[in-house]
């Protein structure tokens, strides 16, 4: 096990009707609020009205940044920064999925920076200060509700890049599983795949001597696999939605990578696909992840064999590590297919035209991944396998 530091300041407020705590959670940070939300799902569900009434009860003045896109855009972040400056905003409240939360984080940091917040994503500037933010999460997927990361798309340059800082962890996140009842089937599937992918990125490691981290990761996977199918069968199954929501948070809140060298190559590759084609992050991951697995498993087949046995319950009797590993990879693909996720880029109308550019961009800061280091030719091969 490697040395590590664990830091997570986000207060998690989890459970039924916890939106009623919003006023008291916001109040310490000020009365001038920027409410950030997406394309309207919160208006349809009635959550918007509940949030406004909670904020009215503490006498808050609310300005709005609506219309945050899935794969949130830099242009939207700019709009938010302008509102914060013009209105003297003291606190940012994100109500929605990962895209809304990520946009809110970029606005929070961008508002305290004289240059373009895009600079944070390309290493041109570091986040030195940020407005406080909080979230009401409506979709189990990214873990953004309890981490310091945000992913922003620059539509002009067709690039999708991440920023990260301990200064943009949400001060609090409200997670009421009932708020995820209205998530449509395809977004529920995307969320399941994204959560599992976050675990994969941290589980497939060459670091030895990490049994606790491995079992944490396996338990998150088992919980998602089981409850994902239940939530898809009945979108209003409270326990299934609750377990999925909590698993999503734990998959990316800093619990799993402790003392472990993590990978993240597949996320890097997927971001290049969604940067150009604006596809859902989870859909891209469902296509690419099993192909990444096939491409790299031989770096340590025993790790994949353990995955096959413990996560998919595949009987190891009479099988080599290699056979077990491949059976586990196939079981992953089969699960994604069973829940309705895509398996090829072709299904999303994506051909080979931009593979070279995507591979170039994916390695622009050097080789990616750690389980097996990937150069441009490796990334291109994985993309070709995904066509
Ligand atoms: O925009 P609205 O109308 O709210 O609709 C959204 C959106 O269309 C809808 N939705 C959300 N909650 C709903 C709902 N519809 C009905 N009922 C509800 N309760 O779902 C659609 C997708 O929302 P989005 O926020 O885009 O999804 P997700 O949470 O999967 O976020 C994806 C973004 O997060 C980034 C991805 O790259 C992508 O840009 N990621 C962020 C990470 C992080 N910050 O740590 C890590 C991830 O790996 C990921 O890269
Ligand atoms: Zn992800």
Shape call: globular
CATH architecture of the largest domain: Up-down Bundle
CATH third-level topology of the largest domain:
Dehydroquinate synthase-like, alpha domain
Total helices: the number is: 14
Number of domains: 2
Largest sheet: 6 strands, parallel
Domain Fe-containing alcohol dehydrogenase-like C-terminal: 188-385
Domain Alcohol dehydrogenase iron-type/glycerol dehydrogenase GldA: 9-177
Protein name: Iron-containing alcohol dehydrogenase
EC number: 1.1.1.-
Please outline the helices and strands.
Elements: E1 11-14, H1 22-26, E2 32-37, H2 41-45, H3 47-57, E3 61-65, H4 74-87, E4 91-96, H5 98-110, E5 133-137, E6 149-154, E7 159-164, E8 172-175, H6 185-203, H7 211-233, H8 238-251, H9 265-277, H10 281-296, H11 301-312, H12 321-339, H13 355-362, H14 376-385
Describe the fold and architecture.
- With 387 residues, the protein is α/β, with parallel strands linked by helices.
- The chain has two domains: 11-179, Rossmann fold (3-Layer(aba) Sandwich), CATH 3.40.50; 184-385, Dehydroquinate synthase-like, alpha domain, CATH 1.20.1090.10.
- Helix content is 47%, strand content 11%.
- The chain contains 14 helices and eight strands.
- Strands 1-8-5-4-2-3 form a six-stranded parallel sheet, sandwiched between helices.
- The protein is globular.
- Bound molecules: 5,6-dihydroxy-NADP and zinc ion (ZN).
- Zinc ion (ZN) is lined by residues 142, 194, 197-198, 267, 281.
- InterPro entries: ADH_Fe/GldA (IPR001670), ADH_Fe_C (IPR056798), ADH_Fe_CS (IPR018211), BDH-like (IPR044731).
- Residues 9-177 form the Alcohol dehydrogenase iron-type/glycerol dehydrogenase GldA domain.
- It comes from Cohnella hashimotonis.
């Amino acid at each position: 096990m490697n040395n590590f530091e664990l830091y997570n300041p986000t207060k998690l407020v989890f459970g039924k009707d916890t939106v009623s705590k919003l006023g008291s959670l916001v109040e310490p940070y000020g009365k001038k609020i920027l409410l950030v939300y997406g394309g309207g799902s919160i208006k349809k569900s009635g959550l918007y009205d509940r949030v406004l009434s909670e904020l009215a009860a503490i006498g808050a003045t609310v300005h709005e940044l609506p219309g945050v896109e899935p794969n949130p855009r830099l242009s939207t972040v700019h709009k938010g920064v302008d509102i914060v400056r013009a209105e003297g905003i003291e606190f940012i409240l994100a109500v929605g999925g990962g895209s809304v939360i990520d946009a809110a984080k970029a606005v929070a940091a961008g508002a305290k920076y004289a240059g373009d917040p895009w600079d944070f994503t390309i290493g041109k500037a570091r986040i030195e200060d940020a407005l406080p933010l909080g979230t009401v999460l409506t979709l189990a997927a990214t873990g953004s509700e309890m981490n310091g990361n945000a992913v922003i798309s620059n539509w002009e340059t067709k690039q999708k890049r991440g920023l990260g800082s301990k200064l943009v962890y949400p001060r609090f996140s409200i997670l009421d599983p009932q708020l995820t009842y209205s998530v449509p089937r395809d977004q529920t599937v995307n969320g399941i795949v994204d959560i599992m992918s976050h675990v994969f990125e941290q589980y497939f490691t060459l670091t030895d001597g990490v049994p606790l981290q491995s079992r944490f990761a396996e338990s998150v996977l088992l919980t998602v696999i089981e409850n994902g199918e239940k939530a898809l069968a009945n979108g209003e199954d409270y326990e299934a939605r609750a377990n999925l929501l909590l698993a999503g948070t734990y998959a990316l809140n800093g619990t799993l990578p402790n003392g472990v060298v993590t990978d993240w190559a597949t996320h890097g590759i997927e971001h290049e696909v969604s940067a150009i084609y604006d596809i859902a992050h989870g859909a891209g991951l469902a296509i690419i992840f099993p192909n990444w697995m096939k491409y790299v498993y031989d770096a340590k087949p025993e790790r994949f064999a353990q995955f096959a046995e413990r996560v998919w319950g595949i009987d190891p009797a009479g099988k080599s590590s290699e056979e077990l590993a491949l059976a586990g990879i196939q079981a992953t693909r089969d699960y994604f297919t069973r829940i309705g996720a895509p398996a090829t880029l072709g299904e999303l109308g994506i051909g080979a035209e931009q593979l070279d550019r995507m591979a170039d961009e994916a390695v622009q800061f050097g080789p990616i991944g750690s389980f097996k280091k990937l150069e441009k030719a490796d990334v291109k091969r994985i993309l070709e396998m995904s066509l």
